[in-house]
Task: inverse folding
């Protein structure tokens, strides 16, 4: 194999390589980089010649990486991100002027809980800052943070706690409750796990933890309706005798928008933590630290009275997370 020195590689070629690897498409990579497709193809050809490897081959819908490209990709991304962080380290982040874009992962109920107060905060303090919300399967979030496709992930994501390179801070403690229509005939009888077997349930497939909770309770056979998202859940509950197992704060917001009742039988399920996750390489980035601090402050400081449908967050559990130090 030909020996290649780093001095022989144009840094721009590595940006092209990373974009093509991420998008699996020369055209989409060109769009991301703000280049023409011929210029992107030419850069890729130069890198292929330099490394003596095709790097990407044609595949349905785009290209797929060669084995060597797959081995190179994590190191190239890490090098580019570390260089980018080093170049920005001395920069002062000014939220009032910055037009940076951040990518965040939320579930739909997480977005419903966090985004209204966060966007109101940004309108006051960082009006040009841009957010992109990305919803990924839980097992895809760690790789997206590592690859730089995500800046933050917010949610109950226990698998990330043990993922190398991922840092996290608790935002709030949550517990599961049962939500059903206000006049439900069984509402007053739900005291323990056995009584829950008399209900029929709706689950939301994009939010795996409540479905797992029903599984732990032995109630999976009682699931009558599975939906892709939460948007239509409140009117369905209001019109039927179906029930939903949901996090307490989400249930409060739904109950504030429809004639629904929250019941808290002894589910036998432990409370869980909603946390903020990011990759360690981003930890010292000034803009990253600023937005991280805002997310933590929203979870800690919002009044409890704002929780039920008015665009705020409930107060966090007594063990308050430590706020990140960042410029105001």
Result:
């Amino acid at each position: 194999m030909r020996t290649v020195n780093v001095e022989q590689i144009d840094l721009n070629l590595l940006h092209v390589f990373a974009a093509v690897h991420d998008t699996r498409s020369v055209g989409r990579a060109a769009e991301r980089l703000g280049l023409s497709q011929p210029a992107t193809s030419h850069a890729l050809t130069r890198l292929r010649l330099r490394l003596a490897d095709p790097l990407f081959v044609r595949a349905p819908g785009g290209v797929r990486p060669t084995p060597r490209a797959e081995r190179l990709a994590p190191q190239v991304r890490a090098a580019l991100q570390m260089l980018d962080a080093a170049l920005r380290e001395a920069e002062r982040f000014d939220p009032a002027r910055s037009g940076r874009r951040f990518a965040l992962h939320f579930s739909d109920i997480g977005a419903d809980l966090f985004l209204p107060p966060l966007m109101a905060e940004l309108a006051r303090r960082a009006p040009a800052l841009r957010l992109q919300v990305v919803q990924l399967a839980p097992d895809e979030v760690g790789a997206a943070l590592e690859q730089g496709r995500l800046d933050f992930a917010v949610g109950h994501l226990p698998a990330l706690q043990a993922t190398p390179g991922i840092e996290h801070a608790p935002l709030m403690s949550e517990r599961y409750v049962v939500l059903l229509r206000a006049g439900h005939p069984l509402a007053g009888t739900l005291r323990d796990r056995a009584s829950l077997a008399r209900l029929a349930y709706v689950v939301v497939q994009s939010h795996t933890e409540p479905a797992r909770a029903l599984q732990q309770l032995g109630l999976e056979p009682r699931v009558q309706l599975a939906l892709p998202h939460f948007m239509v859940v409140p009117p369905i509950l209001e019109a039927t005798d179906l029930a939903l197992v949901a996090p307490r704060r989400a249930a409060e917001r739904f109950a504030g928008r429809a004639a629904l009742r929250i019941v808290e039988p002894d589910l036998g399920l432990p409370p869980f933590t909603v946390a903020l996750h990011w990759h360690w390489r981003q930890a010292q980035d000034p803009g990253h630290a600023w937005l991280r601090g805002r997310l933590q402050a929203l979870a800690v400081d919002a009044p409890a009275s704002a929780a039920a449908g008015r665009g705020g967050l409930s107060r966090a559990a007594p063990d308050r997370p430590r706020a990140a130090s960042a410029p105001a």
Q: What stands out?
A: The chain has eleven helices and twelve strands. The chain has three domains: 6-89, 101-174+272-306, 176-263. The domain at 6-89 is CATH 1.10.10.10 (Arc Repressor Mutant, subunit A).
